[in-house]
């Protein structure tokens, strides 16, 4: 586990992390509608991401597509799995473009690297290129998952975080950590301050999918799950504040 997470680490140490990958769900870009992109929500997310660059933290991002693709559920019934997954990859690209636009309006230099070839709007994913962009202080957004079917954006986030040598994977959600049950459904659900990878897998807690958790466990990559919608939480996480849940 990173020394930044040790018990004797300063509670608000600006250099807690050097490089991180932030996993955003597609739903984090939605407003009150059942699906789609809410410009105000995207702007709020981009502002939080911009705080990381202000701290000198190299920042990569993976965005899901649930806000777009789940709006097409009826059309997807009966669709062949690989085809459906490729459609989902393209949906992530729409979200990535929205986040890039919001970041650049705030003056944050940004690059999208895509696992599928879409040269008009994104660079191809090349690991060394991604690392070089990060070293230059650019936010790097990874689009189109891993570019192959049967793998989720959670797995993509874990894979890319390991490839770029991230210190931690930050999972931004609509709740403030990992619970024993859905806190919006079960008011008696209890939140964990810390939990081990194996317990997440064994109990089936909704953190990330099993493949992503296994990748992080095998490579000792800590996952920090926190409420993205609370202003300033990303900054608190990277400063080493004990918020949300640490999976290690």
Structure commentary:
It is a single chain. The protein has about 250 residues and is of the alpha/beta class. The chain has a single domain (about 20-245), classed as Carbamate kinase (3-Layer(aba) Sandwich), CATH 3.40.1160.10. The chain is about 35% helix and about 20% strand. It contains nine helices and eleven strands. The chain has helices at about 40-55, 65-70, 75, 80-105, 125-135, 155-165, 195-205, 210-220, 235-240; strands spanning about 20-25, 60-65, 110-115, 125, 140-145, 170-175, 180, 190, 195, 225, 245. The strands form two sheets. Strands 4-3-5-2-1-6-10-11-9 form a nine-stranded mixed sheet, with helices on both faces. A two-stranded antiparallel ribbon has the order 7-8. Helix 1 (about 40-55) crosses helix 4 (about 80-105), helix 6 runs parallel beside helix 8 (about 210-220) and helix 7 runs antiparallel to helix 8 (about 210-220). The longest helix is centred in the middle third of the chain and has 25 residues, at about 80-105. The radius of gyration is 17 Å and the shape is globular. Residues about 1-15 have low confidence and may be disordered.
Described by strand count, sense and barrel closure, the largest sheet is: 9 strands, mixed
State the CATH architecture. Answer: 3-Layer(aba) Sandwich
- How confident is the prediction overall: mean pLDDT? 89
Rough outline? globular
Number of domains: 1
Number of strands: 11
Q: Please tell me how large the radius of gyration is.
A: 17 Å
The CATH topology name reads: Carbamate kinase
Query: Briefly, what CATH class?
Result: Alpha Beta
């Amino acid at each position: 586990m990173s020394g930044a997470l040790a018990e004797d680490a300063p509670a608000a140490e600006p250099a807690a992390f050097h490089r991180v990958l932030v996993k955003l769900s597609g739903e984090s870009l939605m407003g009150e509608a059942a699906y789609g992109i809410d410009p105000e929500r995207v702007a709020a997310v981009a502002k939080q991401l911009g705080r990381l660059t202000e701290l000198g933290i190299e920042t990569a991002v993976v965005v899901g597509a649930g806000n777009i693709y789940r709006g097409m559920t009826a059309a997807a019934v009966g669709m062949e799995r690989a085809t459906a997954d490729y459609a989902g990859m393209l949906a992530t690209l729409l979200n990535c473009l929205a986040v890039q636009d919001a970041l650049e309006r705030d003056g944050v230099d940004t690059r999208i690297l895509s696992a599928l070839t879409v040269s008009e709007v994104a660079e191809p994913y090349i690991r060394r290129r991604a690392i070089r962009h990060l070293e230059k202080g650019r936010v790097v957004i990874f689009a189109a998952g891993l570019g192959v079917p049967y793998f989720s954006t959670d797995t993509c986030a874990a894979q890319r975080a390991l490839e770029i040598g991230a210190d931690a994977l930050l999972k931004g959600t609509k709740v403030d950590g990992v619970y024993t049950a859905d806190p919006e459904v079960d008011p008696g659900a209890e939140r964990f301050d810390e939990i081990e990878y194996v317990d997440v897998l064994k109990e089936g807690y909704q953190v990330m999918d099993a493949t992503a958790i296994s990748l992080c466990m095998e490579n000792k990559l800590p996952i920090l799950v926190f409420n993205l919608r609370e202003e300033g939480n990303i900054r608190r996480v990277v400063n080493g504040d004990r918020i949300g849940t640490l999976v290690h």
